[in-house]
Amino acid sequence: MNDKVAPLTSDNYPSWKQDMIAILLDRNVYDIVLGKENPPGDDATEKEKMRFKKRCNKAFSSIYLNVSKDLRPLIADITEGKKAWEVIQKYFHPESRARTIGLLDRFFSCRIEINEKIGLYAAILRKIMADLLDCGEKVPLKYQAFQLIRFLPDCFGAIVQAIYRWPDDRFTFDQVLNELIAEEARLEQCSRDHEQFSLHSATPLRTGTRNFSKINRPQDKTKEYKNRV
User: Fold this and answer.
1) Structure confidence by residue, pLDDT tens digits, 170-192
2) Strand pairing partners for 8?
3) pTM: predicted TM-score of the whole model, two decimal places
4) Residue spans with biased composition (Basic and acidic residues) (predicted)?
5) With pLDDT > 90 as the criterion, what percentage of the chain qualifies?
6) pLDDT tens by residue, 51-109
7) Where is the domain boundary, 92, 117, 133?
8) Cβ within 8 Å of residue 40, ≥6 positions away
9) pLDDT digits over 118-155, tens only?
10) What's the domain count of the chain?
11) 71-80: long-range contacts at Cβ-Cβ below 8 A with a sequence spacing of 24 or more?
12) Contact between 124 and 111 (Cβ < 8 Å)
C-alpha cells in the first residue's frame, strides 16, 4: 500500500484524516495513535519492547511526513504519534462550546438552494453532522430527517406530508433521502413530459390542402332547367 497521501494543508483535513487512518491501519499502528494499545509491561522481553518502540516511531513518522511543511511546526517538538494526532485534531476541530453551537446553528439554518439536487443538499447536511460528531455532539435521528425535508420547494409538499405520517422507525435520514430522490426523479420526468406535450401542441398540424374551386360540383337544378327550356 502506498503510504503517501496528499499532505495536510489548511483546507483538506477531513479527507487527509480518512487517508491517514487507512495508512495507520495498514501499518498496524492506529491503536497506538488512539492510545488503545499500551506499551509492554516490565516483564516483557527487550525484543518486545524494541518492537513496540519501532511501531511507535513508525506511527509518528507516518503522520509527520504527510503534513505540509507549513503545518509541521505544530508537531515539530513532538515525537509521539498519539500526541501529534491529538494536536492536529485539536487545531482543526477545537472541541469548544462556541464551535459546537456554531455548527448546530449552521445545521438547522441550512437551506436547499434553487435547482439544487436533493443528493447534494443531503451531502452538505452529512458533512455538518460529521463535524458535530468530531466535537462530540450527535444530532438526534429525528432532527436529521426533519432538517432534510424542512426547507424543500412547494412541489415536494405532497410527499413531505406523507413522510410526516411515517412511523418513527422509518423516519430516518437515509430512508427519507431515498424517498425524496425518487420523488425528485418523478417530478423531473413529469416536467419533461409536460414540456414535450407543450412542444407538440404548439406545432401546427400539417394537413393536406384541397382546391375546392376545382372540384366538380353538381350543377344547380334550377339553372339546368332554365337552360333546357
Assistant:
1) 999 999 999 999 999 999 998 88
2) 67
3) 0.53
4) 217-229
5) 62
6) 999 999 999 999 999 999 999 999 999 999 999 999 998 888 766 678 889 899 999 99
7) 92
8) 48, 49, 52
9) 999 999 999 999 888 877 789 999 999 999 999 999 99
10) 2
11) 71/8, 71/9, 71/10, 80/56
12) no
Q: How far apart are CA 25 and CA 177, in angstroms?
A: 32
Alpha-helix runs per DSSP H in the chain: 13-26, 30-34, 46-64, 81-92, 97-109, 118-134, 141-150, 157-164, 173-202, 221-228
Q: b or e along 18-35 (b: 16 or more beta carbons within 10 Å of the residue's beta carbon)?
A: ebbeebbeebebbebbee
For residues 81 and 48, membership in a common domain is answered with: yes
Question: Stretch 190-207: mean pLDDT, rounded?
Answer: 72
The answer to whether residues 71 and 105 belong to one domain is: no
User: Is residue 189 classed as helix, strand or coil in its secondary structure?
Assistant: helix
Spell out the residues 6+ positions from residue 23 whose beta carbon is closer than 8 angstroms to its own. 1, 3, 5, 62, 66
Cα 198 from Cα 26, distance rounded (Å): 59
The pLDDT value recorded for residue 11 is 84
User: How crowded is residue 162: how many other Cβ atoms within 10 Å of its Cβ?
Assistant: 11
**Cell triple for 191:** 416536467
